[in-house]
Design brief:
By secondary structure, the protein is mainly alpha-helical. The chain is about 60% helix and about 10% strand. It has one domain: Arc Repressor Mutant, subunit A. It contains seven helices and three strands; from the N terminus they run αααβααββαα. The two termini are about 35 Å apart.
Length: about 160
């Protein structure tokens, strides 16, 4: 088992290699998420809200129904309605009823939301660069390729 993982978990014994991989992924993800969440909180949004804003910015000026947003989230969010409610209260998104089916609402990013993303995107990129600074570009590509291998068979 890697010495850094043992030190982080305050363990002495080795674990099976596949369990070690899972633990290393969780520790790395946690550290990266803590940094990004701290960064985003200074701008009044969470990681999930930032994810929704990026999704909606990608289809701007169009929007998405709530279920379409949910299927595009990095991490599944059972509270997608509350996430959108909070973004709407901050005037970062607006919701409109579908003219053809009044039961469906479409959420669109506002100019205020787009402006916030323009501020946040370079900071999030810098955070990604900081969290991967110990890796070369080639190692980043290889790590990305290996991580995709873990979930590529689960994509519909």
């Amino acid at each position: 088992m890697g010495e850094a993982l043992k030190k982080w978990l305050k363990m002495k014994k080795d674990l099976p290699c596949r369990e070690e991989v899972g633990l290393n992924l969780r520790v790395a993800e946690s550290l990266i998420n803590i940094g990004v969440e701290k960064l985003l909180s200074g701008y009044g949004v969470t990681g999930a809200q930032y994810n929704v804003l990026r999704i909606l910015n990608g289809v701007w000026p169009e929007g998405h129904a709530r279920c379409a947003i949910a299927t595009r989230m990095i991490e599944p969010a059972s509270d997608i309605t509350r996430i959108i409610d909070r973004l709407e209260k901050q005037e970062l998104v607006v919701r409109d009823r579908n003219a053809e089916d009044r039961r469906v609402s479409v959420t669109r990013i506002t100019e205020k939301g787009r402006s916030l993303l323009q501020q946040l995107n370079p900071l999030v990129l810098r955070s990604s660069e900081e969290s991967t600074k110990a890796l070369s570009d080639e190692e980043c590509k290889e790590l990305s390729r290996l991580l995709e291998k873990l979930y590529s068979d689960k994509i519909d």
